[in-house]
Amino acid sequence: MHRFTRRLLGLAFIGATLSCFITPESAEAGGYYRQRYSSWSYKPTSSYYYSRYTYHPVVSTVTTRYHYHYAVHYPSRPRYVYYYNPVRRVYWGRYDIQEGGYSMLKQEDRKEKLEEIPESAFPKPAEMPPIPESSDGEKMAKPDLTALPKHDAAPDTP
């Protein structure tokens, strides 16, 4: 075996061994986050605030590719933060700020436009759902509402 190949195999073995000792907690300390929300931004042309919810479907320190959805807050609907999937282009649920719970829409009720979703389609709020596309049961973090601007808007009546 060539000297270079042996050295390369040795380094690969050491890397694989060390990766066994990396926990999600130590990964977070190193700049890796399983899930997080960006700060809130305002889109004046559509009159809503949005935050990018970024996540890893699986715990991994190898990949740097995050997936994302948007958390959207309409001042005209001050009680809720809606979740939008930009790949499928649908709203798929909402967080009830007053109840502190999440309502996930059935597949057939998910629509591109919020106005197309009847209020009756949203089930009673419950616990946060698992991180999208995950299989380990880790729950989504609740949206960070501390930086969401306060407003006095009349609620919409769908």
TrEMBL record:
Q: Where is the composition biased (Basic and acidic residues)?
A: 149-158
Instruction: Write down the superkingdom of origin.
Output: Bacteria
UniProt-listed PROSITE patterns = PROKAR_LIPOPROTEIN
Q: Where is this region: Disordered?
A: 109-158
- This one is known as Secreted protein
Q: Which organism is it from?
A: Rhodopirellula sallentina SM41
Q: What is the lineage of its organism?
A: Bacteria, Pseudomonadati, Planctomycetota, Planctomycetia, Pirellulales
